[in-house]
Amino acid sequence: MRSPLRAGAVAGVAIALVLSLPSLTAAQPSSGHDGRHRLARAQARALLADVRAALVPGSPGRRVASRRTDLTMELRDLRLALPALSPAERASATALLGTFPPPSSTCGGLLSGGVIRTTHFCVHDGSADPAWATTTAETLEHVWSVEVDTLHFRPPVADGDGLFDVYLQNLSPGLYGACAPAQDSAHSTASCLLDDDFDPAEFHGAPAINSLEVTAAHEFFHAIQFAYDTTEDTWFMEGTAVWAEEQVYGEVNDYVQYLPFSAITHPLTPVDYKGVDGSDLYYRYGAVLFWKFLSGAFGDPGIVRRVWEYADGPAYSLQAVTSALAERGWSFPAAFARFGVWNTLPAGSYDDAGLYPGPTWWQVVGLGRHARDTGTRAVTLDHLTNAAMLVVPTGRLPRRTRLRILVDGPPPARMAHATVQLRRRDGAVQVLDVPLDGRGHGTIRFRFDPRRLSSVVVTLTNASTRMATCGTDPADRYSCAGLSADDGLAFSVRAKLRLPRRR
User: What is the four-CA torsion angle of 286, 121, 226, 243, rounded to 10 degrees?
Assistant: First the structure.
């Protein structure tokens, strides 16, 4: 489900350049999972209350739920959580799930009003405006043409008549739509529910057509996901669904609203953090940045489809990404380190970088004649996080001045990585890997001439994908409902100037 933080068009022009990426040995996935989110009874009951608040008119908390609830994922999770409920609660949840309009074996009107049949869709028109229903049907066909015909993702699992069912209803203000699987199975048919007019007065003033377009692209992509693996990780499902919006309607740039909850603004928050409540939920949408990076770095959106193909089976999100990267001669740590580089927004990174918030620096230091040593700067990194230090030359320095970067981190076996960017005054950027030995120590030296360099950026990375306890995290915050084996890793960095000797 698209979160209703804000929906509107953002105009802008960006540079479409790709950073060159080294070919490295691929890391192997660390563990499997059973594809289930094991919830305690208290959590399952809370989930039941949230879904009821969103779907049942007059329920307590309905307005709050419409603004804070990720209804698509909660419908999916409630179906998976049925075994954790008591028999009475299970019956209530099953009845509630049954109120969501199901796939129909014949394209008939289950709601008041008629239906619109297109090549791939059965649109059940519950709106008061037949013209808008026609616009919705045409929009959905365009979404199919891009996501299925052009990007070659699987179509949703077919129902009896082979048409995908979309229902138009007047939803609560701020609730754009949702898509739900119809079965408790890895591959499920699905149906979607969209607002019937996207009245700007109810959707933060956004143009109705913009809200329709990105919602249709997002929600239909959830139905595609259910054809690969209904039980996949939330950050993966929502992050790639927002990514799909960009592939279909890149001119709208609605995803920019989630960047305050992304790795650019929160580099110390694991990228696979799905959030648990309130505004925390927006992190799952901010994960779009990783998928923007992946398709941009390779210059190929097919890399995201390949990840979903690997996710069809026992592999969970991080394992699927690792396999897709290995297929192209890449290791996950190397790719995630480059992700950290892109999030400092050097020239030639994201195509929409001009619309993004500024990078979040862990440290900003100046080095010159009177301050030649940063001293040791230490930071603790959890899995899938980065920390970037900006080093700026101060004053006039001799041309032959050199800078030495010393990194002390975990051993590479724990997926530690470090990079240095040399940012030239002409806009060119050179990215260097800091070679780390078996103990995690590394040093790199280079010329530090302020006539040529505007700054240097050191990025430390914990790229660990090792989830040691899949399926046991009661809060289900990260990939595979597990906890990382490599959180809280200590890194430090020191930068030292060396001026040439006077002759």
Answer: -20
